[in-house]
Every structure is written in C-alpha cells, then in structure tokens.
Design brief:
Radius of gyration: 49 Å
Largest sheet: 2 strands, antiparallel
Number of helices: 33
Number of strands: 2
Oligomer: single chain
Helix content: over 70%
Strand content: under 5%
Distance between the termini: 78 Å
Shape: flat
C-alpha cells in the first residue's frame, strides 16, 4: 500500500480490494458446498443427478408395490375376461382345467416367493390367487350346478371361501391379505342365507345382527390389524343397516321391531369393550335403540296422542342412569352416552310441545277486534294434543332431578313453559287463561327475587389463585374453572325474563275487556313492585322499571275510561314521572328515573296536537325537573332540563297567543343566561367572557339583528342600537371581549342598515367617476400611513387580548 497517496484515493483502493476478496470468498464457498454433495451422496455421485436439487417423490419400495399392484390387477382383469367372455372358445373341461391350473399356481407361488424373500411379489400373486378362487366358484356354479339357486349358492360359496382363505392365511403367515379377505367374505353367508330362505326384512336384519356380533368376537381375539379393521367396519355397517330396519319396523310393526332394536342395542353395548374411544357414541346409539324398542309397543297400545309422552318417559328413564348414585355399576362412558341419548329424546319431545307454548305467549297479539271490544281470539294452534302439557311436565321433572345448575335452570324454563301452554292445550276460558298467565308471571318473578330456592344444594367452587374465594359470590362451574357461572344471577335473570314475557302476554290478552285491563295492570303493578321491594341489584332495578310502566298503563287506562282526550291523558301521565322523581329521591334509582323520563316524553307527545295543553305540560315537566335538581347529584342535569322545559313552555304559550316579536322568545333565554354567566364569573374570575356572556348576548342580539334588516320601522333599530351601544360600553368599561365585540359588531351593522338608503341615494346622485376616484385616494392615504396603521392595529389587538 502506497502511503504517499492522498487519504481519499487510498480509501478507494482499500474498498476495491475488499470487494474482490468478498467475491472470491463467495465462489469458494459455493465450490465447497458442491464438493461436499459429491463426497457424501450415495456411490460418490451428486445427490441430484436429474432435476438439479429436486428430491425423489417416491421410495423404491413404494414404486415396487405400485408396479406389483398394477400387475396383479391386470392379471385379475384378464382372468375375469377369460371366465366371463371366452367361454365359447374352449370346452367345459378345458376351461375348468385352465382355471384350476392357474389358480393352483397362483396359490402355490407365494410360498416359493416368501422363501426367497420376495414378500411384495408374493402378496401380489397371492391376491391374484384369491381372486381366481372367486372365479373358480363362479365357474363351478355355471358348469356343475347350473340349477342351484344363485343366492343360496353365493351364501355357501362365501362361507367356503372364507374358511379356505383363513386356512390359506394360516399356512402362509407371511401374507397379510388372506385374513382380511376371509373376514370380508364371512359377512355374506348369514344375510344371503336369510334372503335365500325367503326371510323378510326382520330376518335379514337379525342375520346382520348375528354377523356383527361375530365380528365383535373376532375383535376380541389377537388377529392382525387389517383383519380387526375389516371386522370393525363390517360390524358398523351391518349394525347400522339393522338399526335402520329396526326403526322402520318400530313404526310399521312395533312388536317385530322391538326385539330387533334390543338386539342392536346389545351389539352396541358389547362393542364398548373393544372400542373404548367410541364408547360414549356407541352407548348413545344403544340408548336410542332401547328407547325405540320400549316405546314402539307402548305407542301401539295407547292412543296416538300419547306417542310422544311415551318416548319422552323412556328417554328420561334412560337419562336417569347418568347419575352415578343410580347406576354405579355402569362405566362412566356408558352412563354419559345414556344421558346424552335420553336427554336428546326428551329435547325432541319438548320441541314437539313448543307450538302451544308459542301460542300461549304470542296468541294474544293476534287481535282481530279493537281494544276493549269484548271479542276474544281463538287459541292458536287449536286442537293441539293436550299431552303436550304432560311432555313439558315430564321434562321439567327430569331436569329438576338432574341436580345441577343447568338442570335447575331447565326446570325453571320448562315449568314456565308448562304454565304458558296450559291455556292453549286445555282450551281454558278467557278468565282462566288470563289467571294462568298472571300466575306464571308471579311465579317467575318470585324465583327471580329469591333464586336461592333453586340454588340450594349446589356445590360451592373451591377457591383458586385465578379466582379467589368470594370473587364471584356463590359461583358454580360446570367442570371448568375458566367459565364461572353465578347460579343465583342466572336463575334470577331467567325468572325475570320469563315473568316479563308472561306479563306482556297477560296484558295483551286483558286488552279485550276494560275490567280485565284494570285487573291485569293492577296485579302486574303489585307483582313488579313487590319484586322491586324484595329483590336486589339489577333485578330490583328492572322490576322497578316494569312497575313504573305498569303504573303508566294504569294511568293511561284510567284516562281512557274517563273519556279524556289524548292531550288530557298526557297531563294525567305526568303523574308517573312525578312519582318516579320522588322514588329516586328516596332510593337513588337511575333506572326508575330514566323510565319515568321516558313516560314523561310520551306524555308530552300526546299533548302536541293541542299547543295550549302542551305549554302547560311542559311547565309541569319543568317543575318535576326543578324538584329533581334539588338533589346534589342531579343539580346540573336537573337545572338544564328544567330551564329547557320552562323555556319551551314559554315559547309555546307565546305562540298560542300569536306573539311574533322575536325578542319575546329570546329575552327569556338571555336574562337567565347572563345571570348564570355573572355567577360563574364571580366564582371563577378566570372564566372567559365568551363562555359566560357570549351565549346569552348572542341569543337576543343576533335574532334581533336579522329582524332589523326586514323591519321597515325605526323603533326596532333604535332599541337594538341602544342596547348594543350599552353592551359595547360595558365591555369596554370592564374590559370584556365578548360584550365589546358582539355589541360593537351589532351596533355597526345597525348603523349600516340605517345609513344604507342614504348612501344609495348619494351614490346615485354623484358622477360615475367619483366613487373610483375616492377609492383610489383612500388607497393612497392608507399606503402612505401603512406602517403607522399596522402599529395601531397591533396595539388594538394587544388591548383585546388583555380582555377576558
């Protein structure tokens, strides 16, 4: 390196040398990688002689098996073509001799191939031999036994072939195919024999059941995996077919289908021991089969309306085995499957019983006549089996007997559904139906207030680091600490929802007659008021809100019964927000206040068609809001609401009197606003004058300014200008920006308005060249004193900035 070079040139040379070294290093590293691939690849050759670095997509053994399988298939196709097509080219003896010779060779060759270690080839040739034995059996039937029944011959041939293939597999244990093939062939003798004997669907299904049972016995023996898989799949297919047949027979011929379903259930339960991962599913299928087996004959012996209750009773009896205390002798998986099956049957029965529940709940809304017409709608759906009530009763009892949270919850819902459906299924009279709905509402609300009646005895959760004791109250978990459920809250809210639904249905039904309406509203008001008094937390708030709505309904119904107009009824309804304001002052209930406010808004809406009554209603509402503002926590909101309502009342009254002067509407806003602003400035001297006085001043000055430009009289401009002048002087005296600027701007615009006619006249009288000349002179004067004008403007801005 030449040390005499300048530093910049020397740095350039160093960078070029480093670049050449990096390039040489990259080449050497690539060559090293290639040499390693050559040295460590098989036979010293590169790892990827074809296709660069692409890896092989199959192994040598996989390729060999594919070729052997294809060869065996082609040979089997050739043998099949020879057997079925080429009969005419050879005699009977020749054809039989050829098939026998080829079959013998195909069956003997695997022994030699296995001794030489060619297992895959032996497997392919052995499979060909098995196929040839099937063709031999076909040829034997065509040649020696042509008059024999084909189905019976197939059954016997399948049995013989199954035995021969099993023996063949026992002799050549190196072959894996003979045993599974023997198991597959063994599935046919009994079903085909039943068909050949002229048996009906039940006999064939029984043959399938027995064959499936034999497959299960085979699964319990130490056979190969392939044979076990074949036996298990065959048993499943046969049992499924037998179950479908049994279900069909249970409908068409119950006494024939019942034993078959019981046999299928026994097969499924036997399979539990050998198929433990699927034990629950097998037990569930067995449970469904047992319920159908018992329910079919019972259904046939009883009237058609009792069919669903019979099945539901059987399902609940089966589900009862889910409790360990009742069936400890059953494995846990079997009990779980029985519980699932029984619960599923009961759930389907409940779905069948839902139409009367929906009819009892929503039927009163289908009103064809007017309110208080005295006409009653027919039950919907009419003529539904009365046993639907029995189904709901059985399901509710079963849920209650479960003893867990979901069982208690299900019992609550189903019990309420039973009461809701009774008026429909029993076709109760009008008064009785209304009474039942009110009883359902009361019972549900009672459980909402006191859910402890249903939570008694539920296990308490153990405290954990993730959820300390007492964090969830009386929490209860369904097997997972990550999903805690408060049983009391769940049942309380469910009871409240059910009670509210029944109350709504009862009220809709009660609207048919006047007396029923008052009775229903009175009872509902008492129920919800009692729930609010006895309840706690959010349930109490919701019940109190519903009680407020019931009270509003009573007030409205009373006004309608007295013949009041809608506007007068609105005044009566204002009693409700007044009462809620008093309640909230005592019990501090925001929900009740909000409900009362909503009723008050509806009352005001009723008075809109009569403005005079609307003004009175707004004033009364303002009084209620002002009384609410006496509470410290509602002072701000109540004051604003009262002010807005009083102002609206004054405006409406002025409109009724025909007052069109805008100041009559704006001054009632300006005066209180200025007083409030003055009090705020006394409390907070740093408050801006725009916040304190700006809204109040703008409320009067701006509308009056707009009115001035359309008013030809001189009185309004004089009064507005005088007021604006006073506001401007006060702003200047106390150095307040908002009064100074607002008053000054309004005063200037009023002056422009007053001078505008004269200016127009003057411009019209002057020569046309005078306005441009005057504008030019003004510009010259401003330009000449530009710097002084800027300084004066800056001083004015600073003075304004010091103002508030």
């Amino acid at each position: 390196m030449d040390m005499k070079l300048p530093p910049a040139e020397e740095l350039r040379l160093v960078d070029e040398e480093l670049g050449r070294l990096d390039a040489r290093r990259s080449v050497l590293l690539a060559r090293r990688a290639w040499l390693l691939g050559v040295l460590y690849s098989p036979a010293g050759r590169p790892a990827a002689p074809f296709g660069g670095g692409a890896a092989a997509e199959t192994s040598p053994r996989g390729a060999q098996n594919a070729l052997l399988t294809l060869g065996g298939i082609l040979l089997a196709v050739a043998a099949l073509a020879f057997t079925l097509v080429s009969w005419g080219s050879m005699g009977i003896t020749g054809r039989a001799a050829v098939l026998l010779a080829v079959t013998s060779a195909a069956l003997a060759a695997p022994a030699v191939l296995l001794r030489r270690g060619l297992a895959s080839t032996a497997e392919a040739v052995g499979a060909l031999g098995l196929v040839l034995t099937v063709l031999d059996a076909y040829a034997l039937h065509r040649v020696a036994l042509p008059e024999t029944d084909g189905t019976a011959y197939a059954a016997v041939a399948a049995a013989v072939l199954a035995g021969l293939w099993a023996a063949y597999g026992g002799l050549l244990r190196g072959l894996r195919l003979p045993f599974p093939a023997a198991v597959a062939a063994a599935q046919l003798p009994l079903p085909l024999g039943a068909v050949a004997a002229g048996g009906g669907p039940a006999v064939v299904a029984w043959a399938a059941v027995l064959t499936a049972a034999a497959d299960l016995l085979l699964l319990a023996r130490p056979v190969g995996l392939a044979a076990r898989i074949t036996a298990g799949a065959s048993a499943g297919v046969l049992a499924a077919g037998a179950l479908l047949t049994g279900g069909w027979l249970s409908v068409t011929s119950p006494w024939t289908g019942a034993p078959l379903l019981a046999g299928c259930a026994a097969v499924c339960l036997s399979a539990v021991r050998v198929a433990r991962p699927a034990a629950g599913a097998l037990a569930a299928v067995a449970g469904l089969a047992l319920v159908a087996a018992v329910g079919g004959p019972a259904r046939a012996a009883l009237p058609s309306d009792w069919a669903v209750p019979v099945y539901v009773a059987g399902g609940l009896a089966l589900a009862a085995l889910w409790r360990p205390v009742r069936a400890a002798w059953l494995p846990e998986a079997v009990r779980a499957g029985f519980g699932l099956a029984g619960g599923g049957v009961a759930a389907l029965g409940v779905v069948w019983a839902l139409p009367p529940v929906l009819g009892g709940l929503l039927g009163p809304a289908d009103r064809s006549a007017g309110v208080w017409s005295g006409a009653h709608a027919e039950p919907v759906p009419g003529g539904y089996p009365a046993t639907a009530a029995l189904v709901l009763l059985l399901a509710a009892g079963g849920a209650a007997a479960a003893g867990r949270l979901w069982g208690r919850w299900g019992a609550l819902v189903l019990g309420w559904a039973l009461l809701t459906a009774l008026p429909v299924v029993l076709e109760l009279p009008y008064a009785a139906g209304l009474a039942v709905r009110l009883v359902a509402a009361g019972g549900a609300l009672a459980l909402a207030v006191r859910p402890g009646a249903l939570t008694r005895g539920l296990p308490e959760p153990a405290p954990s680091p993730e959820r300390p004791a007492g964090a969830w109250g009386a929490a209860w978990t369904t097997g997972s600490q990550a999903a805690p459920v408060a049983p009391g809250a769940l049942l309380a809210w469910t009871g409240l929802a059910a009670g509210t639904a029944s109350a709504t249905s009862a009220l809709l039904l009660a609207l048919d007659t006047r007396a029923a309406t008052f009775v229903a509203l009175g009872v509902l008001f008492g129920l919800f008021a009692a729930a609010a008094a006895l309840g706690a937390g959010a349930v109490r708030e919701a019940a109190a809100s519903a009680a407020v709505l019931a009270a509003a309904g009573l007030a409205g119904a009373g006004a309608a019964a007295a013949g009041f107009t809608p506007a007068t009824a609105g005044l009566v309804l204002l009693l409700v927000p007044a009462g809620t304001a008093a309640w909230a002052a005592r019990f501090r209930s925001a929900v009740v206040e909000a409900t009362g406010a909503a009723v008050g808004a509806g009352a005001l809406a009723l008075t809109v068609p009569r403005p005079a009554v609307l003004a009175l209603a707004l004033a009364l509402a303002g009084l209620i809001a002002a009384a609410t503002a006496l509470r410290p926590e509602r002072r701000r909101a109540g004051s604003w609401a009262a002010g807005a309502l009083f102002l609206a009342a004054a405006w409406v009254r002025l409109a009724v009197w025909g007052v069109t002067v805008p100041e009559a509407y704006t001054l009632p806003v300006t005066v209180p606003a200025l007083v409030v602003g003055f009090l705020r400035r006394r409390r907070d001297p740093a408050a801006s004058s725009w916040v304190a006085y700006g809204p109040g001043l703008a409320a009067t000055l701006l509308p009056s300014l707009v009115a001035v430009w359309s008013d030809p009289s001189w009185v309004r401009p004089l009064l507005l200008g005088t007021g604006a002048l006073g506001v401007t002087l006060l702003g200047a005296r106390f150095r307040l920006r908002a009064p100074l600027l607002l008053g000054g701007a309004v005063l200037a615009l009023v002056g422009v308005h007053e001078l505008a006619p004269y200016v127009v006249q003057l411009v019209g009288a002057l020569p046309r060249w005078l306005p441009p000349a005057g504008a030019g002179l003004l510009l010259l004067a401003v330009g000449a004193t530009y710097e002084r004008r800027l300084r004066e403007a800056r001083l004015l801005r600073e003075r304004l900035a010091r103002m508030r």
